[in-house]
User: What shape does this take?
Amino acid sequence: MLQIYRQSKIIKPKTDIYNVTHLQAVKNHQAKNPEASKSSNLESVKKYQIKMETNFPPKLLSPLLQHKIATSFCKDTLPQAFEESRCAVCGTLVTPFDLVSSNV
Ligand SMILES: [Zn+2]
Assistant: This one.
């Protein structure tokens, strides 16, 4: 039998005692370096805001993209896109777009 040892990440349980001592340590650190902790907190807040920035509502479409979407829709819904014609050689039903004229 194959046995695999996988080292698991040790996660500290966040008990009330842990939270209280952590909060006290943070307060001590902030009291010792008020300016440094204030600026690092501000930096973290800015990073968080950038990370959480959403793309809603989306930006307006550019005129080029609007034109591309409308043109593609018109092309895809042309009556010819729904018609079927037979290939003169093998008889397969295809759209007229896929056929090529031949003078043979
Ligand atoms: Zn054919």
